[in-house]
Amino acid sequence: MVVKCDPALEAIEAKLERGESLSQADGVALLRTPDLHTLGRLALAAKRRKSGDNVYYVLNRYINSTNVCYADCQFCSFSRSEKDADAVRMSGDDVFAKALETGSNFNQLHIVGGHDPRQLSLDYWLPLMRRFKDALPHVQLSLFTAAEIDYLARRHRLSYDVILGRLREAGLDNINGGGAEVFSERYRKIVCPKKVDGAHWLEIHEVAHRHGIASNATMLYGTVETLEERAEHFVLLRESQQRSPGYNAFIPLAFHPDGNALNDCGPTSGLDDLRMFATARLMLDNFDHIKAYWMIQGLKICQVALHFGADDMDGTHGSTDEERIYHSAGTDSGQYVDDREFRRLITASGFVPVRRNSTYDVFAADWKPEDGMPQRVAVAV
Ligand code: SF4
After folding, report:
1. How remote is the CA of residue 365 from the centroid of ligand 1, in Å?
2. Is 220 in the pocket of ligand 1 (CB under 6 A)?
3. CA-to-CA dists, residue 379 to 53, 54, 128, 374, angstroms
4. Of the residues 69, 112, 148, which should be mutated to test ligand 1's pocket, given the most ligand atoms within 8 Å of the CB?
5. How far is the CA of 192 from the centre of ligand 1 (A)?
6. Distance, CA 115 to ligand 1 centroid (Å)?
7. For ligand 1, mutation pick of 77, 89, 115 (most atoms within 8 Å of CB)
8. 113 CB less than 6 Å from ligand 1?
9. Quick count: other Cβ atoms within 10 Å of Cβ 287?
10. At the fourth CATH level, which superfamily is domain 7-371?
11. Residue closest to 294 by CA, chosen among 103, 62, 138
12. 78 in ligand 1 pocket by Cβ < 6 Å?
């Protein structure tokens, strides 16, 4: 089959040249196009306008502190009842010890978990967060998703504003982007009816930004959503960023089918993955970063994604970390990528590796906590 130039992309390219934001219909055209070469060219040009040749990575630790959850999301292979033999519920001491298991040379602590009635409470988290901030002032706390914040607010009968204010005081730097799935009400009724709805997910992030808490955003694609719903999700995120700036990165999350009720949807294709990276880069013109998270799409697709608009490969994770959300669902990515390997992969793709933290402050590649305060270095874009 000869792939011809897609006329829909010519009109989109003209809009991009005029500096106009793309519409939902444009997003659908990008997600549907067979013309991957033009799509990649447009997305790479947009990436270069944002971040030049830089591609970011972070030395981080990743912990799933509990898999106990009763939200019953249909795509989830991770959650367990507290009576299940493989339920995992870490104590605060266990979480603290796990984070420091391989030393303190990292700049982000990323923790997410289930809606666990015993663990997901302010009594558990506020002292633990303060303990981390005292011991590791160079580490940014990237904790919870908006779905967890919503659970905390309902549990304590407090507003999002009060909950987020208290979390900020205890040291919360960043909210993770999960829980967004696809914002469409139709989709959420089928797939995750017990989870925070799209409007409240957006509200939580906007309130967080007003408290000085940064955040990321995601979309879980590849199940029962339509391309129109994917494109609408991008438009809603862009409008949210306009109302209350504070999103740093968007991360496309490919569905993995093992061990969950949506198994028949199957895995996403490499082409769908690349269309998602490129469409995200072109639709989200007010987001600085598009992340290709190696744990989700695998290192090789993520390397190619750098030519389809992505400018971030996420983090190393620690060599003793055990990510369970995607591994329960069948990802064959490993658990850990050495930072030298990140730099090699990024350089081999034709880009410049840049070490960052959650909020994209930049560090020299060889920075260590014993060097004193982080050495910020200028980055050419
Ligand atoms: S995706 Fe999150 S909220 Fe939904 S069932 Fe799994 S752990 Fe619970």
Report:
1. 35
2. no
3. 10, 8, 34, 15
4. 69
5. 8
6. 7
7. 115
8. no
9. 21
10. Aldolase class I (3.20.20.70)
11. 62
12. yes
Closest listed residue to residue 298, CA positions, set 323, 273, 263? 273
Which DSSP helix (H) or strand (E) runs through 16?
helix 7-17
User: Could you tell me if 62 and 110 are in contact, meaning their C-beta atoms sit under 8 angstroms apart?
Assistant: yes
Reference 351, options 146, 65, 53; nearest CA is 53
Give the start-to-end residue ranges of the domains of the chain.
7-371
Q: What is the pLDDT along the chain (381 residues), one digit of tens a residue?
A: 566 689 999 999 999 999 999 999 999 999 999 999 999 999 999 999 999 999 999 999 999 999 999 999 999 999 999 999 999 999 999 999 999 999 999 999 999 999 999 999 999 999 999 999 999 999 999 999 999 999 999 999 999 999 999 999 999 999 999 999 999 999 999 999 999 999 999 999 999 999 999 999 999 999 999 999 999 999 999 999 999 999 999 999 999 998 899 999 989 999 999 999 999 999 999 999 999 999 999 999 999 999 999 999 999 998 887 888 888 888 888 888 899 999 999 999 999 999 999 999 999 999 999 886 655 555 666
CB-CB contact of 296 with 326 (8 Å) = yes
Which residues have a Cβ under 8 Å from the Cβ of 268 and sit 6 or more positions away? 221, 222, 254, 255
**pTM, to two decimals:** 0.96
In short, whether 247's Cβ falls inside 6 Å of ligand 1 is no
110 C-beta closer than 6 A to ligand 1:
no
Asked if residue 256 has its Cβ within 6 Å of ligand 1, the reply is no
In this structure, the residue with its CA closest to atom 7 of ligand 1 is 114
Cβ neighbour number for residue 225 with a 10 Å cutoff: 24
Residue 37 alpha carbon to ligand 1 centre in Å: 37
Q: Ligand 1: which residue has its CA nearest to atom 4?
A: 73
